[in-house]
Amino acid sequence: MKRSSSLAFVLSIIVSVLAGCSGVPNGSGGGGGGSQTGNLVLTMTSKPALSLTNVSVLGANVGITGITLNPSTGNAVAVTLNPTVYPVDLSRLQSDSAFLATVTLPAGTYSSATITFSAPVLTIDNESGGTLNGNCPSGSSCQIVLTAGSAQVTTTPFPITLTDGQTAGVSLNLDLNTALTLANNSLALDFSAINAATASILPRAGTATGLDLVEDFVGKVTATSSTSITVTASNGISLQLKLPSSLVIEDPQGLCPALTAACLVANQTIVSVNAGVNSDGTLTLFSADLLDATPLDEVEGTVVQTGVSGQTVVVVSNKVVSSGNNTLALANSGDIFLVNFNNPTFIVDTDEFFNNASLPASSLTTLFTSETDLVDGQDVMVRVTSATGTASTRDQALTTNQVRLRFTRTTGMVQTVSGNAISLSNIPFIPFITNPLADTITGVTSFDGVTDVNSLTAGQNVSIRALLLNNSPFSFYATKVRVQP
Question: pTM score, two decimals?
Fold first, then answer.
């Protein structure tokens, strides 16, 4: 889909990483084999590509086809993934973490990890002045399929010793800024590049409890009990979540005034959940944001403005399909949809800001009421009334009657910190004239890599998950701030 080059700005990819286990000592000794076992918790995060010029990565999707832990002696141990090809959206993982697995391993020392990947699919906005990879003209948004590969992680914290009965966590990070290169009008991703994949021990600084957080996981409630719920995303990933003694239900649309577990109806309720990864490798639900009380057709993704009234473009990150529409059923993360407006309502999903005294809903909802409030880089969920086309013919289009503002992921460099506000520079793709301010909210905004906003320093690259609002004192209202390594 063609865009005016005047709209070109660079949106950084949110790069994926495996986040993981806590309390794993380094050491030496035998590994793999024997009757003694321990448990390893694996999650995933990412670092986006920050150094591309005039090329914005709007989506970066890949499947993990295998993970093995390699002992100092003995046979490698394969991690069982479900689904077996585990889909990850690297753009979202620049601020968030994906839970991969809790696996039982023979006690011993592991010298490295190997991760294998399917062919990654990048969705880019190309304003480079040249045609990239032979099929992506300058001034257009398009998909590029790159080469599958594998990454070997051998640096600290490896070697890792897992003792009998221990549950630990390791975070593996895929650094797209290292792995992704652009030369001679060709994008390439080398998973095997030095330090493309790294690891760290969990929990990271700022994690309040447990090993890690899984945030904004969108899906349908597919099972409930008195002690847990299961949420299943459109990509086939299911998470079983323990119910806490005090459950937080966020309901900015007033779908279920009870605000209790009774609002979470199996095979009906669509939610965005935040969960903690416990020290035993299980998950506990922190909060559930009610998106729909009954399944409807929804597509979520990044806004790319067309400059034409009555329409925009969305690069898909999530979907919910209830009608059986073939276009939606076959759509994947990273697909590009032309969105046509049919007199839509505009609403804000306040999510963690629901009923927050420090940030009243009126501070947000009044700033997103019409098409004129849309800007490049916003994350929106559009309710679909019709959809046609295919990715192969590059004519996917949908019509919507509701546009819901959700949380943008992006990365920038800290310039100043004043009170709760962070001034950021080098924000790609989004059309800022001056350095934008990101507001952090006490009691809501979580931090990753630092303990609080006052621990941030100028020059650090931080990834945020935030509501992006135009014509506001703060461009971003952040629910997450992660310091990139």
Answer: 0.91
